[in-house]
Design a protein that fits this description.
The chain is mainly α. The chain has a domain of 118 residues. The protein has 7 helices and 2 strands. Helix 5 packs across helix 6. The chain starts with a helix and ends in an 18-residue tail after the last helix.
Length: 177
């Protein structure tokens, strides 16, 4: 019986002992929840960048390890202290996490809408370019304009240059009065 009771007692004493510390003190320069959510969101976006995108950012002089800190005017110690404080106060950290995930979802929606809009514009451009290739001949018949038919049309125009009516035959017909 004591063998079963001893592990439960150990866990209970550990919880009570750890709970007595009260967690980290609130830093004097605590980062606000909204700013903390933005910092975590930017860090996640940078972390999810592919190797090629990271190289492009570095080529443009962006230091990935300090970019977020410089953007928000904080240092790594201030972030670490604020993160430790919010991590201990789980309700606050959960609120920060929810703000961050909501912002990322909205960003995803906006990017998906932008992608759909660009795809529709591309589709419209392709239809317009296809329609531009269609040409009507002298009888009003639509012919598809491509490099072959364009060459044939140019050749036909050169042959007909200066002639109003093509004769049906080479014979000269005399009209009687």
């Amino acid at each position: 019986m004591t063998k079963r009771f001893l592990p439960y007692l150990s866990v209970a004493l550990l919880v009570i002992a750890c709970n007595g510390f009260g967690g980290p003190k609130k830093p004097s320069n605590l980062i606000s929840k909204k700013t903390m959510a933005n910092i975590l969101m930017d860090a996640r976006l940078i972390g999810s960048a592919t190797h090629i995108n990271k190289q492009k950012m570095q080529e443009h002089g962006i230091k990935l390890d300090s970019y977020v800190f410089e953007k928000y005017g904080i240092d790594s110690l201030q972030f670490a202290l604020s993160n430790a404080y919010y991590a201990y106060h789980i309700e606050d950290y959960e609120e920060i996490y929810n703000i961050m995930t909501d912002s990322l979802e909205k960003l995803k929606e906006v990017l998906n809408e932008q992608k759909l809009k660009e795809e529709k514009e591309q589709e419209k451009r392709e239809k317009d370019s296809i329609n531009a290739l269609k040409v009507k001949d002298s009888l009003g018949v639509t012919i598809k304009k491509d490099s072959l038919t364009e060459d044939v049309l140019k050749k036909k125009i050169k042959e007909d240059a200066g002639v109003l009516i093509n004769p049906v035959s080479d014979k000269n017909h005399q009209f009687q009065k």
